[in-house]
């Protein structure tokens, strides 16, 4: 039993990371209807930026703050420069652009920092709290706390600020948002900036666990897709719950389903995506739009 | 009228891509007047309103109280006090009724009250925007009972009321209404027009209303223009237009 609970704890820890990247995906999808395939690569790039700051001698927390700021501005710039020209283009066009961005960012990171893995410091101490036969790693607890804080901040932003209200208005009806005087273009850029910032948090959480290298987020992105699909692409809460569920499912499947083991567990999110799309395409928390004609 | 008109439109041309819809429309509306724009489907009525609020690119001259609005972006025009209730009502479906109304005041510089529904310390009320919320409730009491409800769950008539209420939250100097009667029961439509008239009388808001239901529009308007194929073919006071035999045949459904 203790072993089972331990697996669940491990799963939640992994799930919190998937949740953080899924949050970034959902943010952009909500505002623009775009599934940003490059989200993981942007997160990876942000992690490299943090690494660079630390290599220059800055302490971790200062590097973190600077990285978040750079990522925010970078996300806005990408929206203005790369996404804006294809705004309103058919979905396939936009998908191709974000896939192109994926390849570009990946190659750029390799070109700048090489494909050799780099050590990335873990901001959390190494030990663990032992409680009732369970071992709760500080790292796992820290990751969950960070994701919780990010969620809380996003909630405050969206529900209790004017900017957040404007962003939700743009997500729901861009042309009407324009008529009430909201600068829609800037709001979309703001959404990308915000998503890139959340993604940066994700990248910085992942880097110490997987080592820093340009392909580090590839696997995480697939889990994040599964999380967002499970929770509903238009629901930030769904993304987080989805991430946790995917993390736990993956860990349990790896531990208890004999033929899956640690090699096949990467397949778990794909199976989740498949079943959700078949059974409940809008996801667990997604809205099947409430509208009266 | 035209010397000291509040809204003057001169030789307005507008369209979508290569397709020109408006071919040089000129009109003037005095302050506090209601102006009805009539005409068949495809005449360019909606495009005219969209041109006034900056939703389509225009050539020509649009002036509101002397200020040039032509070529400005919709958010700039909204800041000038122009509220456009679009065709299809423009409801923010997943947001609550209260959030929809508060968005109407988005460009007003009354920061505290606009921080969502209450500010972070939980304070409520007291600001000009809250006062305007009350004002909208007096025009549309039904909205007050639905404040926390998701706007998408309102009936068509309630959504139209919400759309007009949202526009009033701007304290507009110019209110543009696009087919407020569309898809509504006659009783609801009459109620809406009665309220528009009341707003116009009590707040001296200038109104331009596009309407298929010419009879109803002429009943509240002082002046009217008939638009056909992107040109104004007939202008006059509401009585003159109502008395015009050709208009009567085409849009009012009876002979004088």
TrEMBL record, chain A:
Subcellular compartments = Cell membrane
Membrane spanning residue stretches = 12-31, 51-73, 94-116, 136-158, 188-210, 216-233, 240-260, 266-285
The membrane topology of this protein is: Multi-pass membrane protein
* One Pfam family here: BPD_transp_2
Alphabetically sorted, this entry's keywords are:
Amino-acid transport, Cell membrane, Membrane, Transmembrane, Transmembrane helix, Transport
- Where does the protein principally reside? membrane
Q: GO CC terms for this protein?
A: plasma membrane
GO BP terms: namely: amino acid transport
One annotated GO molecular function: transmembrane transporter activity
Query: Could you say which protein family the record assigns here?
Result: Belongs to the binding-protein-dependent transport system permease family. LivHM subfamily.
Indicate what this protein is called per its UniProt record: Amino acid/amide ABC transporter membrane protein 1, HAAT family
TrEMBL record, chain B:
**Keywords associated with the record:** Amino-acid transport, ATP-binding, Nucleotide-binding, Transport
What SMART domains does this protein map onto?
A: AAA
The answer to whether UniProt assigns keyword Nucleotide-binding to this entry is yes
Pfam families attached to this UniProt entry: ABC_tran (PF00005)
This entry's Gene Ontology molecular function terms read: ATP binding; ATP hydrolysis activity; branched-chain amino acid transmembrane transporter activity
Q: Where is the ABC transporter domain?
A: 7-254
* GO BP term, pick one: L-amino acid transport
Spell out the family assignment given in the record's similarity comment: Belongs to the ABC transporter superfamily.
Name listed for the protein in its UniProt record: Amino acid/amide ABC transporter ATP-binding protein 2, HAAT family
Q: Which organism is it from?
A: Streptosporangium subroseum
């Amino acid at each position: 039993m203790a072993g089972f609970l331990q697996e669940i704890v491990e799963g939640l820890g992994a799930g919190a990371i998937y949740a953080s990247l899924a949050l970034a995906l959902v943010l952009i999808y909500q505002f623009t209807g775009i599934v940003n395939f490059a989200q993981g690569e942007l997160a990876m790039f942000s992690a490299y930026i943090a690494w660079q700051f630390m290599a220059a001698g800055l302490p971790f927390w200062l590097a973190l703050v600077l990285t978040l700021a750079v990522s925010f501005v970078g996300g806005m710039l990408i929206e203005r420069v790369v996404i804006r020209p294809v705004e309103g283009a058919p979905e396939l066009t936009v998908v191709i652009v974000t896939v192109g961005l994926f390849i570009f960012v990946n190659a750029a990171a390799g070109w700048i920092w090489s494909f050799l893995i780099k050590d990335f410091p873990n901001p959390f101490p190494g030990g663990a709290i032992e409680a009732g036969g369970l071992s709760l790693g500080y790292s796992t607890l820290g990751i969950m706390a960070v994701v919780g804080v990010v969620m809380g901040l996003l909630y405050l932003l969206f529900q209790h600020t004017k900017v957040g209200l404007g962003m939700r208005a743009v997500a729901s009806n861009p042309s009407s948002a324009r008529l009430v005087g909201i600068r829609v273009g800037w709001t979309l850029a703001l959404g990308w900036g915000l998503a890139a910032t959340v993604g940066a948090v994700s990248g910085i959480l992942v880097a110490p666990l997987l080592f820093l290298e340009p392909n580090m987020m590839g696997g995480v992105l697939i889990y994040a897709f599964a999380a967002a699909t499970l929770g509903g692409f238009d629901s930030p809460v769904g993304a987080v719950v989805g991430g946790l569920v995917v993390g736990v499912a993956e860990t349990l499947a790896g531990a208890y389903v004999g033929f899956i083991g640690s090699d096949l567990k990467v397949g778990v999110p794909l199976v989740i995506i498949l079943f959700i799309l078949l059974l409940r395409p809008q996801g667990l928390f997604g809205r099947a739009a409430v509208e009266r004609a | 009228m035209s010397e000291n008109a509040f809204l003057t439109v001169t030789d307005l041309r507008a369209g979508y891509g290569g397709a020109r819809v408006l071919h040089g429309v000129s009109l003037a509306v005095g302050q506090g007047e209601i102006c009805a724009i009539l005409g068949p489907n495809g005449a360019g009525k909606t495009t005219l309103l969209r041109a006034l609020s900056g939703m389509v690119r225009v050539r020509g001259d649009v002036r509101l109280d002397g200020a040039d609005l032509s070529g400005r972006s919709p958010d700039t025009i909204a800041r000038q006090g122009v509220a456009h209730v679009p065709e299809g009502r423009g409801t923010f479906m997943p947001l609550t009724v209260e959030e929809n109304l508060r968005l109407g005041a988005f460009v007003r510089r009354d920061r505290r009250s606009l921080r969502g529904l209450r500010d972070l310390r939980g304070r409520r009320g007291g600001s000009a925007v809250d006062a305007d919320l009350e004002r909208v409730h007096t025009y549309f009491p039904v909205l007050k009972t639905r404040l926390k409800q998701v706007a998408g769950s309102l009936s068509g008539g309630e959504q139209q009321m919400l759309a007009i209420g949202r526009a009033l939250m701007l304290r507009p100097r110019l209110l543009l209404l696009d087919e407020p009667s569309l898809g509504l029961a006659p009783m609801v439509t009459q109620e809406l027009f009665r309220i528009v008239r009341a707003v116009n009388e009590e707040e001296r808001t200038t109104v331009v209303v596009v309407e298929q239901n010419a009879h109803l529009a002429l009943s509240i308007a002082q002046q009217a223009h008939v638009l056909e194929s992107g040109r104004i073919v007939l202008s006059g006071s509401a009585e003159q237009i109502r008395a015009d035999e050709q208009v009567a045949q085409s849009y009012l459904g009876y002979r004088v």
